Structure formats: structure tokens, C-alpha cells
Amino acid sequence: MNRFDNYFTYKDDQLYCENVKIRDLAKEFGTPLYVYSSRGFKERYYEIDAALVGIEHLICYSIKTNFNMAIIRLMASLGSGADVVSGGELYRALKGGIPPKKIVFAGVGKTREEIEYAIDSDILMFNCESIQEIDAIEEISAKKGKITSIAIRINPDIDPETHHYITTGKKENKFGITVRHLLEFLPRLRDFRHVRFRGIHGHIGSQICSVEPYVKTLDKFVSLIDELKSNGWGDIEFVNMGGGMGIVYNEETPFNLQLWGKEIVSRLTSRGLKLIVEPGRYISGNSGIFVVQVIYRKEGETKTFLITDGGMNDLIRPALYGSYQKIFNCERREGSEIVDVVGPVCESGDFFAKDREISTTLQGDYLSVMSAGAYCMAMASHYNSRRLPAEVLITEESEVRLIRRRDRWEDLLRNEEL
Ligand code: LLP
Prior knowledge:
alpha/beta
């Protein structure tokens, strides 16, 4: 274990979160089950906050990573803002008590309905991804007689050296506007009366483990801002550096956050700019685990399969990206073995680990898929008409809170019985 997954630790060979035995939770609430540590969310948030001392900043927790309402309320209580990418996320953020003036709205395909909803809610700003979108915001704002703040997402064409599915700032990606297109558009933007261009936004990818791509991006941004300011765009006061900070799933060595903060802060303070960041995974990723029960231990011709009651519909990252998440037995046993940990879904891609060495496991044991706080429950589906899992949150005082009950059978039909 290292400092990145210390919210879930073994005591006497039993996995715990605070003073709560994970096995007891599995028995009480059933499996599959997501378990979150509120200490994890808090510590990570404060760590980012501390790394950014010296600059006026706003941390907008990226709701897409984990949008349970209890988590959003927890983030709101810390003073966090929110990065939202849909009307649904905006709805959750507002219901969860995030002040509208701490909400930024990103995404390449905002509909008119979503734009109207966000303008009516008085959010801080849109992170705009195309000129067509800015046209739509101008038109809708004009109709409402409002002035809407925007940041423009620049595609810096920087390689963050991460999984190609989660790279977002290269020129072949659909995100953002190139500097050339922005400069061509500016004369037209000058005539817009209902849009206020206040910031530059950039999100270059996720699970980034080196500071360098941030520095390169920021250097591009500050020279662009210098140029814009000298051409009369004095309203630009925000730089949004996106999210993307990497965490440990296996053997990664994420960068030191203090160093990252220093590089960013030094480049912005001299220019009097304010900073927005939109971290998701860094806050939620290691703050959660996914607990499943081994229903069957099946000896195949060449492999041993641990067939669990959790599937790819509950946690799809290994199936979708081939991602690695550690797997621990909630009750550590003597010896180890090499197994495939799979789910019950009717797809060969339904696995959590292949050829993985884990501690010897018996039928009925509970396994924990680690680092499951980000992009796990958030990407769950009802595939195979499986009910979505329950979620519990463990407080620092070891209080156990059920924050989502498991779907009931009738929940599966809820929207079809018209
Ligand atoms: N801001 C924007 C504009 C984003 O697109 C994202 C993530 C974030 C912030 C938060 O990034 P983070 O701090 O979490 O890296 N499902 C994939 C990751 C997709 C990332 C999408 N964008 C996974 O499971 O690895």
C-alpha cells in the first residue's frame, strides 16, 4: 500500500475503511457494493487547494467521475465548485448545494435546452468548444436579455502521454478550438453583445502522470493571453487548466502536486490571472472500492475463474480500456494463485482481471476492486437487466451511510410502464 490507497487498509488480514470491516458491510448491504471514504474525498480536495496557495483559484470537482448526491453535498461542504458536462450534471450540482457561481459547464454538444437551463441558473461560465456553440449562446442570451460569461477551450495539440481513449488535447480530438480558428473568429466575437469572453480553458487528458504536458499547455495559453490582451481583450481573467492529474492504480508514479502547483501558480500570478481547475479522478479515484462476492470458483481447462456477482455493467473500465485495478480479498488468506476474475454478464469482455495473482480465494469470499471511486459507478449501466449496485459512504468517525440503495426489480421497469 502507498499513500494513494491508504483509505482502505488491512488490519489483521481484514480489509477496513476507518474502523469498519468491509466484510461486514458486504454482509449487511449485500454485493455488489461501492464503498467510499469521505476522508479520501476531503484529503484530496485539500491537497489540491494547498498546492495552489498564492493564487486566487476555484476547484471545480468534476462531477462526471462520481455523481452520487451525497458526494456532491460533501464536495459542496468543502467549498468546492463543480465542472458539469450535461443538464443532468448541472441539475445534480445545484440540488447538491454547489453555488451556481462556482459551476462551469463544458462539453462539445451542449443543446439549446441545456444552454438555457445554465443561463437561467446563473452559472459562472460556459467552457465553449466550438464557434457554433458561441453563436448559440449569444443568440439565446440576447433573447433573454442577459450577458453570459464564457471561456474558450483551446485545443493545444499536446500529447499528455496517457491512454489514447482519454487524451483530449490533440488536434485529432473533437475537443476545443484551435488557436488559428480562434484568431479568425475574434473580429466577429467583438460584435457580440451578450457574450463576455473571460477565460481560456484547456483539458488535455486524464490520468496524466507528468507535469510537463501541463507546463507546455500553460506556456501556450499565457502567450496567447498576452497577445489577446494587447489586442483589446482585457476581460480575460481566468485560466482553466482542466483536470487530469493521475493516481495510482498499479505501479504508476504520479507527479508531485506541490510541484505542479508551483509551475502553474508562478506563470499566472505575474499576469494577475485567476485559476480554475476541474479535477475528478484525483479526488474520487482512490476514495472508493467496489466489493463483489465470489459466487463460483470454476476450474477451466487452462485457468481458474472466480465468477463474481459484480459485472462489467457495474464497473466497465477493465473491459472498456483494458485498465488495471488492483483486486484484494477482503479477508487475506495464506498463499496466492493466478486467476481470472470475471462477472456474470454474457460477454467474454466481462472481466475485472486476467491472469492475476491474488491471495487464495474460496467460493463465498468477498473481493475488493480497488481505486473504484472514479468512472466506475458513474459509468454503470443496466446491461443484462442487472440492477445498479448500492453505495455506502464511511465517515472519518466510522459512521456508515447508505447513500444509494440497490435497485429493486421494479426500478428496472420504472420508465417503461407508461
Ligand atoms: N474536465 C474535462 C473537460 C474533462 O473532459 C474531464 C474528464 C475532467 C475535467 C476530469 O478529468 P480527471 O481529473 O478525472 O482526469 N472514463 C475514463 C476517463 C474519461 C475522462 C473524461 N474527461 C476513465 O475511466 O479513465
